[in-house]
Structures are given as C-alpha cells and as structure tokens.
Prior knowledge:
Blueprint: E1 9-14, H1 20-28, H2 51-57, E2 65-67, H3 69-74, E3 80-83, E4 91-95, E5 102-104, E6 111-113, H4 114-124, E7 134-138, E8 144-148
Parallel strand pairs: 1-2
Antiparallel strand pairs: 1-4, 3-4, 5-6, 7-8
Amino acid sequence: MATHEVLALVQFVPETGISEEEALDLIERTAPPEDVESDQDVLVVHRDTDPFVDKFDEEDDGGVVVCGRAALVRLSAGCVVVVRRAPLATLFYRNMLPELPVTTCPACHTLYYTEDYEVQLVTRGHCGFCRQPAACDQSEDHERIYMPLEDLQIDSEN
C-alpha cells in the first residue's frame, strides 16, 4: 500500500560549533521582523539565494546544506523534520512542501508522507518498511500517536 514517493526534503546540518540542542533551540525561535516603517511602501529584494531551493533543484543527490545560526533562526519549525536515531547522529531535513507533512516511523526511522503512513497503519497495522506492528493511542489533547506495541503499558490485573 505504501506509495514510495520521493519526498521533497533537503538534508541540512548545523554549522561546526553548533550543538544539536542549540540548533533545535534556534529553529524554534521566530525570526526577528525586518526594520520597515509602517507608513512606507517598501519592496525588499534579497539578493542572496535560498541554499535549500538551490540544492532541491540540483540533479545530483550529493551533499547537504550547512546552516549557520542566522539560517537556523530563519527556518520555520513547521518545515523542519528531525530524525533522532540513537546512537547514530540526528538528521535534519527541511520539508520543501510543508503542506504535505512528513512522519517518521519510530522503529526504523523511515520517512513517509503523514497521510501515507497513517493509511498504512490503519489498513495493514504496521510500518510499510520494517513491518513493526503499531497501535493507536489517544493522548490528552486527542492527537493520534502511533507507537510500537511493545512500548505500550498494559495493565494485566484487569
């Protein structure tokens, strides 16, 4: 059932000297507003190109974008996908199509469009790649969370 579509993701890494925690903190911050007086009509043209768009348009798959502190602050937290795969290094991606959210399987860390992953879990009951069984749990805010069955706490006294 999985579609195996190419995801519109561009991998990036924080610049040398920026820890994972600092990078996540910078991404969560909102960028400072531009200095423009409210009574003026101003057209601002940024001459620097977006390195993510440049990398997304490239034909080759090599290389990742290196982001400094200023670039990390400009990123929207909703467009960033973080894949934590302990003990391996954390991977950072920018979703170039944020209207199509991306989800990571908690067991194998395979990336899917959220809709495709949910359809796979509902119809087959497991991840389409690793076949790890998953169960649906309702959290306090009624957001659906999918987790591997062995992570569920089952009260056997009832």
